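On clarity, I found the account of how folds are encoded harder to follow than it need be. For illustration, here is how one protein appears when written out as sequence plus structure tokens.
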Amino acid sequence: MFKARILLFLFLFIIFSGVSFSIFAQGYDDDNSSDDIIFETDWDGYFPELYSRGDQTFSISLGVIFPLFFLNNGSMMDHNFSPPVGGTGSLAYTHFLSPNFFLGGEIGIMFNSTLGNNTVFFIPIGLRTGWQFIFKRLEIPLTITAGVVPQTYLDYEYAGFFLRGGISFFYRFSPEWSFGLNSDWNWFPQWPKEKGERIRSKNVDSNILGLTISGRYHF
């Protein structure tokens, strides 16, 4: 009889202990259920070296251009644009070789009206390279672009070399998107030839300032 009581006591103790542990565990889970659905990301702790080799961006830019001055064989000439503001847009691709150094390409269009209500078009197509400085979410790329630029005006057509230097200021809004402002200096030389020889008296060096806003997609 004494052994039976001991066995019954142990059996009840085990059952009671199991029920108490289950209730405690359930209460603990209920108290911390809100913690289980809180997710922390690394984006709030954004670190400067966000890029790595192989990272890419695709950007679209829209804005205005300001014809600054034109040189004819070294002499200043009237650029004949009215109003002295035109429009521009471009698409650009960038591939990072390091957290700061990148290569890529771009294609765009620039246009401006003349005093005679005609329009001149530039279509720059070039390769671009540059270096990007990063300060938390502020990204400052310096770029150099070189390539060819077909130009049309009335019945005249010309395709020549162009060179562009620029600086941009982007704010990294999210891991996928950044938005910013661009400023660039464009040099479009026109050095025509007749019968294979360059006619220096007809050389024109166009210098145009561009101001645009951009959206960049990072992938």
